[in-house]
Amino acid sequence: MAIYAIGDVQGCYDELCRLLEKINYDPAADTLWFCGDLVNRGPDSLRTLQFVISLGDNAVTVLGNHDLHLLALHHGVKKVRDARDLQKILKSPDRDEMLAWLQARPLLHYDKHHKAVLVHAGIHPQWGLSKARKLAAEVESQIQGPDAAAFYGAMYGNTPTRWSEKLTGVKRWRCITNIFTRMRFIKPTMKLDFNASGSPREKLASPLTPWYEIPARLRPDVRILFGHWSTLPVGVYGRCFALDGGCVWGGHLVALRIDNSAEDWFFVDSHTHRPIDDAG
Question: DSSP state, 220?
């Protein structure tokens, strides 16, 4: 039995199929971990979502910002940008069943046996594992609860930029959501910067640090698997593993086998060549 963590698919269904062929995926034995953003921008979000749902217990999926965007559209939030590919899902006869499944996905998955955490963007350096799991569950109760539409309507925005336990209500939930699904850089004041999306190798206008380089409270034996950051080179950053190969932008779709000690990486070239107008 193998476990493979897979980077942001974003509707690149053909590349996903080719990646599974490359790893010799065995549906009778193997498990796939998807780090979020199954949908949006790519050529076939509908088939991607249908396929991952069809995997049943063989797939573990956490929510990314594009998945939340789809759910916001489904719940009638009109102020956000629509997309033709997402409309195929919203107009599908099995829309309600698919989006109920998506809405039930967590923000964080932890595997105690393999000491691995799966998230979309990252874990705040000030959070330990128990804190991160507790905060994820807190927001999941809003995402999945009776007032979910109100949550999605208030979810958008870059503030608050600094995490504090004193935050309450919508501001607290938005901050937690942004950390799990949008975080990249943190300022020396520990404020989150949501405007910078390039590679840490680029010369930045202000002093910014990738979240994974800041000393963390998460215990050192836990690995963090994350996506979201397509301009960050795929690879290992301490005990953090960057999985987003920018497939939807013409890069690669990436899988990492995590149930052994060898760190086996697998890549397939993208057939999608979308202009990089927004790497979110």
Answer: T
